[in-house]
Every structure is written in C-alpha cells, then in structure tokens.
Amino acid sequence: MADEKDSGNGSIQRRPRDLVWDLVVETVLLELDGLALFGVFTLPDSDTLATGLIVTGPAVWPAVELYRAGPPRRAAVVAAVLALATVTLLVAAAVNWALPASADSEAGIFIGCLVAIPVGAAVFAWRLNRANVA
C-alpha cells in the first residue's frame, strides 16, 4: 500500500498526514452523530451546555485514544487547546457579526465549538506526530 510503510521491525506505520486526516474525519463523523442524537433526543430550546456535551462529547474520543496510545506530549495538548479556543472565539465572533439576532442565543459559541473540535484534533495529531518524528 502506498499510504503505509514498513518501519523495519515488522510493524506498519501510516504517514503522519494520513493519521491527521483520519482523526479529523472520525471527529467530524462523531460530531454529525452527536448532532443527529441532539436532534432526536433533546428539545429545540434546550440548554447550550447540555447541547454542547451531547454533540461534542463523543467527538473528542479519537484524540483521547491517540493521546493514550503514545507518550504524552504537553506541547501537543497546549497547541490543541489554544487552537480550540482561538477557532471557537473567531467563529463565534463571525457568526455574531453576521447574524446579530442570534447573538443572545449563544449560537455563535455552539457553531464555533462544532468547527473548533476537528481543528483542535488536527493540531493535536499534527504536533504529536511532529514530536514523534523529531
């Protein structure tokens, strides 16, 4: 397979770019599952915190599994958290600017979290792979 290579000790390793892409795709799919669950099992005017936990809770597990699989890297975790916070705030500001009527309903923060979780997972996987290669 072109995407995998033999590391010399009999184990097959994936390229770092493929690992990041796989993690992002899995995170987005879990978010979509969370959105489907949210739409089915909660009321339309539910609490934003509960909504966020239902939608994004399962989406962080691929990154948690990646963290447990390798040696802990503080720099990768810090970079992921900073990316998560930055993207959430930037998207929330853009949504609140574009749709001022939705600013009171915290829709901007919710949409920002939906966008930021895959970005944070990608930054985490990228930094972790970069640290493992070095």
SSE layout:
Blueprint: E1 4-6, E2 12-14, H1 16-41, H2 48-56, H3 61-69, H4 74-98, H5 107-133
Antiparallel strand pairs: 1-2
Helix pairs in contact: 1-2, 1-5, 2-5, 3-5, 4-5
Which terms would index this structure?
134 residues; mainly alpha; two-stranded antiparallel sheet; 5 helices; 4% strand
Q: How large is the radius of gyration?
A: 17 Å
Estimated structural class:
mainly alpha
Estimate the helix proportion, in percent.
over 70%
Mean pLDDT: 77
Distance N to C terminus: 24 Å
Q: How many strands appear in the DSSP assignment?
A: 2
Strand content: under 5%
Shape: globular
Give the strand order of the largest sheet, numbering strands 1, 2, ... along the chain. 1-2
User: How would you spell out the order of helices and strands?
Assistant: EEHHHHH
Total DSSP helices: 5
State the low-pLDDT regions, or none: none
Major β-sheet profile: 2 strands, antiparallel
